[in-house]
Every structure is written in structure tokens, then in C-alpha cells.
Amino acid sequence: MPIFRHACFETSIAKPAALPLADGPEIAFAGRSNAGKSSAINTLADHTRLAYVSKTPGRTQLLNFFRLQCGARLVDLPGYGYAAVPEKIRRQWQGLIEDYLKTRANLVGLVLMMDTRHPMTPLDQQMIGWFAPSGRPIHILLTKSDKLSRGAAMAALSQVRAALEQANGGSGRFTAQLFSSLTKVGIEECERVVGAWLEAVGG
Fold first, then answer.
1. Residue 87 neighbours by CB under 8 Å, 6+ apart
2. Model's pTM, two decimal places?
3. Distance of CA 147 to CAs 151, 152, 173, 202, Å?
4. Whether the Cβ atoms of residue 112 and residue 124 lie closer than 8 Å to each other
5. What DSSP designation does 151 have?
6. Which of helix, strand or coil describes residue 67?
7. Phi and psi dihedrals of 60, rounded to 5?
8. Exposed, middle or buried by CB within 10 Å (0-12, 13-18, 19+), for 166?
9. pLDDT tens column, 138-182
10. Phi/psi of residue 72, each to 5°?
11. CB 148 within 8 A of CB 114
């Protein structure tokens, strides 16, 4: 059975002190505001409303935990970037995300969403910089790949892979793929990558 299908909402938190018991491996999903993160989660879970989808960036304001049937959790992080919210709230989100990524002991990997048309923004690179010292893998989903021609999408993927190769010193810890919630391209590839993470930790 696919890893993400039949995911169930468990809890939402606004502060690190409220994190649930670390009783299984967790996979974090992050992305710049309006990068298609919620749509990607819904597509992977085969659920139309598991994660809230909005045309207004910044709607996901909490860490949302979903329990997978294998016992692991999918953790939906607040979108980062140019959300139309007060600066104070943006700083709070940033602190919450950074604290979770740097301190959560049972976090096994980060799935990072980037719009295929605008990948590797400074904010995306900052997110990679926060997480890279943990030694855990990062997998990039280049979302909305249907918005580009096949050739342009493949060129964007090649550029991102080259940048990741340079960033991780050739270790292969950072990977990338094309993804589309509209055409369902990339579901199986993402499942394979995350499945290997869970197998590596016995999840």
C-alpha cells in the first residue's frame, strides 16, 4: 500500500513546547508560500482536503501532524516566504520551523517543495542550510511541472540537481524530481524515496 494513502490528521501545534510524543519516524514537508505544498500532500495521500489548499499564501500557520498507516507521521510545516501576514507572525513561523528541523530527534528526512518555474530561491536555500547540518536527507519536489514544457521542466530539474550536488559535496543525500498535482506525475518516485528513508530507520 502507498505510504501516504489513508493518512489521518492527528494534531496541530503553534509552539515547540506542544510537540507530540516522538513515538515514530517523521517526514517533514516544507515549501515557500504558494509553492503547491498542500496540493502535493493531498495528491500523495489521495485525499482532496487532507491539507488545506488556498490561493492565499501563508494559510498553513501551524505544524500539522498526520499519522500514516505504517506508524510514521507526515508533518506539514508552515509555508515560508512572502505570505501576506504581519512580520511578527512570520518570525514566529520561522522560529517554529527552524526549531523543529534542528531539534526533532525522530525526524528522518525533509521533503521540500519548490515551484518548478522558480526553484532554489534564497529562502529555499536558507531552508536547506537549516536542515543540512542534521545529516538527514532532503528530497526536492519540483511542483507544478505541468506549467512548463517537458524540455523546460527537465532543464529546471537538471539545474536543481546540479546545485544540490554542489551543496552536499556529492554525497547523494539531496535528491530532486518533477511533480505535478494536476497530472499526478511523480507520485511513485516520491513514494520510493520516502519509503527508503523509513526502511533505513526501521519505520
1. none
2. 0.90
3. 12, 10, 28, 37
4. yes
5. H
6. strand
7. -80, 105
8. exposed
9. 999 999 999 999 999 999 999 999 999 888 776 789 999 999 999
10. -75, 175
11. no
